[in-house]
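hey all, quick one before standup. I had two proteins in the batch that finished overnight and I want to keep them in one place so we stop losing track of which output belongs to which input. First protein below, input sequence then structure tokens straight from the run.
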Amino acid sequence: MHKLILKPGREKSLKRRHPWIFSGAVAKVQGTPGPGETIQVRSATGDLLGLASYSAQSQIVARVWDWKERDIDGAFFRERVGQAVARRRAVLEEGVEAFRLVHGESDGLPGIIADRYGECAVLQLSSAGADRWRQEIADALLEVDGVTRVWERSDADVRALEGLPPAVGALRGPREPTHLEVAEHGLCFRVDLALGHKTGFYLDQRDNRRLVREMARGRDVLDCFCYTGGFALNARAGGAHSVVAVDSSVDALAAARAQAERNSLASVDWIEGDVFQELRRLRDQARRFDLVVLDPPKFAPTAAHAARAARAYKDINLLAFKLLRPGGRLMTFSCSGGVSADLFHKIIAGAALDAGADAQIERWLHAAPDHPVALHFPEGEYLKGLLCRVAGT
């Protein structure tokens, strides 16, 4: 087996079970491993630290599969997928139709995401190692009870960092249908396997959508970056007095309207437009809301983009605070890996200060429990959120 030898002293993160090895930590590579090939990782003194997939094109030159000598093969992926499925059974309510099956590094499967929508598993591979084992991973997913199809959505931008082209389409089972309907907390949502965001739906926000429903009764709600209406429809289902939903995508709003009709939820005011501009327009119109939801796209994919992202997050949150009535709530999120929870907290605090809002944090918000975060891999906590309440009269 090919070997990757670390520079002296660079084994500390691996001994803490962090699965990434950056190119700057590498002293030399013995042999000529191909993209995604399994290699031994050894310290400068020759100690075996683990088995990893290799990617010469990426700054993350290796991702650890296991910390001991073993075979990395089809049986390995069946074992790891089976363990991940067992964890979901322990944390999910009975009857949940759409959830995450495999959550990458946090499930010991770097670069592998798999979401389940009824009988279909949607697979997203973002690393050279994951890509190399595509067929074995698909076979492992087919062994999950009730899964009859595997669809691939490996079209995220991060694949380019590994020198990988996008890959979308059926891996196992029929190609059609590409649109599925799944139930979530009594609502029906349509999932677009081929063109929907991420793997077709934002499963990580499942519990936070239910929280919006619980808070919405009798309130005026504003849902920004609404996509296909997950928060907006839950607000309406929860008995909101009014719901305004804003997104820049014509296609997303068309899907949202269709989902509202499918669920017999009328009277949502769907607005096509840039959220930054629409927030200013609503402010100038002296509109006020009891609950504002901000769930923007990723502003900072890496820490290098954090400063620019911080300005964008502050702008939209400052405007949102100004739109709240006394006693109103702001539910605000960041899914940017380059923005830490601590930095996000500071950004929101600064936005409230500049808006003249006296606010408290009622809850820290996170992804649903089928998106676990391994203690040794804090980067897995990409979604962070705050539920803030401004002072009443």
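OK second protein, same deal, sequence then tokens:
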Amino acid sequence: MTYPPEQLRKHYYLLNLIRRFEETLDALFGSGLIGGTSHLCIGQEACAVGAIAALQADDMVTSNHRGHGHFLAKGGDPGRIMAELFGKATGYSGGRGGSQHMAAFALGFLGSNGITGGMIPIATGAALTQRITGSGRVVLCFFGDGASGQGAFHEALNMGTTWRLPIVYFCENNHYAMSTPLRESFLQPSVAARVAGYGLQTMQADGNDYFSVRRVTQEAVSAARDGHGPVLVEAMTYRMCGHSKSDKCEYRTDEEERQWAGRDPLEAMARRLLADGIAPEAELQALAQQAVADIEAAVEYARQSPDPDPETVQDNLFATF
């Protein structure tokens, strides 16, 4: 399967943009310029960019606690996302949602959630809406392997398959639920194998390979859009960082980390673009440098943005006291 060269170059830039965003965010937390916590997706960039590349512009995405990459890949403005993390009024949630509670409905990004598996039922409900209204849209629902142990995950998949909803459940299997290896939690470590009993089609992809993720997700999205019901895609990947900013990854071996570092998704895509003659080395370097500059601009935008007005503290609440 071939893709337009200009699109591939843009997506290589997006991989770099997400990586630089997360690395910068890690440094900002470490220096104390941003408080709280955050969950980074370093190493999982190909899942976000490759999967969302398989969607139409008006399709919808739901995310999880590790969601900055998904948001950027769906078209989120890095400046506004950074401003939200700084707690500024120009952020997507007005500075009051933070890392795990941002949404942009106009982009089809229905939001992230701090509850493990919390967006899976919401994505299923959104897919039900698409089926009832006949919109032709598909919902892409991101979650991690740890979420497959949640009851809501199984309830949602059962409902999705029973009602044949236009949804792709996309599992980023990074092999760890916080610090617990998946092999210690389940006798059957494959999420795809465990859910086959619900009657939905399952597929697996190399989550560190943009081209594998995009190809598999395109097939899944087409099936869901054509009325064949949900598809679960399990993308095998690895987070090249801790679960959160305070996690030193002492539960992983140096050898394991070295092996996965050799499968860095940014380097893998660069090699492919070079081999296929899509872009010379100089252009790839320029795209990577542009990502660095754009994230520096995003940080400056966030720094210069105003704090939320205290008078708006009760705006957009479902209930007040």
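Flagging for whoever picks this up: DSSP finds twelve helices and seven strands in the chain. The mean pLDDT is 92.
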